[in-house]
Amino acid sequence: MATSTAGAGATIQATDIRLGRMLQEYGLINDHQLFDALQTQAANGGRLASILVRRGCLSDMELAEVATSRKDVDASTHNVHLTLAPVPVDCVSLPGAVAMCLSLTVPEGVEWGSGPSASCFATMNLILPDEASNWIVSARGRHAQDRFELLSEDQVALGYDLAVRPVGCADVFPLAAGGASAIHIDRKKGARGPVQALVEACVSHDSLKRVPPGQYVEYIDLSVNSPESDFLA
User: Fold this and answer.
1) Residues 101-146: pLDDT tens digits?
2) What b/e sequence results for 175-204 when a residue is b if at least 16 CB atoms lie within 10 Å of its CB, and e otherwise?
3) CA atoms within 13 A on the CB side of 136
4) Number of structural domains found in the chain
5) Parent domain of 17
6) For residues 177 and 137, what is the distance between their CA atoms, to the nearest angstrom?
7) Is residue 2 domain-resident?
8) Do residues 78 and 186 touch, judged by C-beta distance below 8 A?
């Protein structure tokens, strides 16, 4: 799984985001609780689960129940690797964009568990422009103009979702393939400086179970614009 640096010396693991999503599916935490905890983790480090328990968002018993039900899924997906990483600027096909490579490896002999659905997540850092609160994000995959999909060497297509999550903000902003998506955050009065965000790619557990083993790859061009300034990568 990919790791994204989101604070001074601290990291947010994609596995933590995955755990957070599962806790949300069980109705144990909400968006605000999850992203407040992720912001604390990014600033100070530590385990996401411990932060949530310490804040009283859920109990040790509730966490243990989720961990138990998660074992089937973890046993089936721990060898399925999804990564999202920047690629050299000369690979960009969209002017003014950042190029990213999304790569998924599904090994031979994967036995999918019978536990609750668990998606694969990968994240990458994104710096939103200085002094702004509104941005327009355009994202385009190389394989299709109107949808996001990875392709294997045998041309098997596997769909995925792409979103932007400003760190410390409870909102998630899904991106439209081949189109423009608006992002707005309410900055505190007097707040200045760049806004840290995560680009998050997600492949659903149900989709993974339908495709054969292999290497799946997609190149994505992503550009960010605001009325106030140009995109800072």
Assistant:
1) 899 888 877 666 544 456 788 888 888 876 678 888 989 888 888 8
2) bebeeebebebeeeeeeeeebbbbbbbbbb
3) 9
4) 2
5) 7-78
6) 11
7) no
8) no
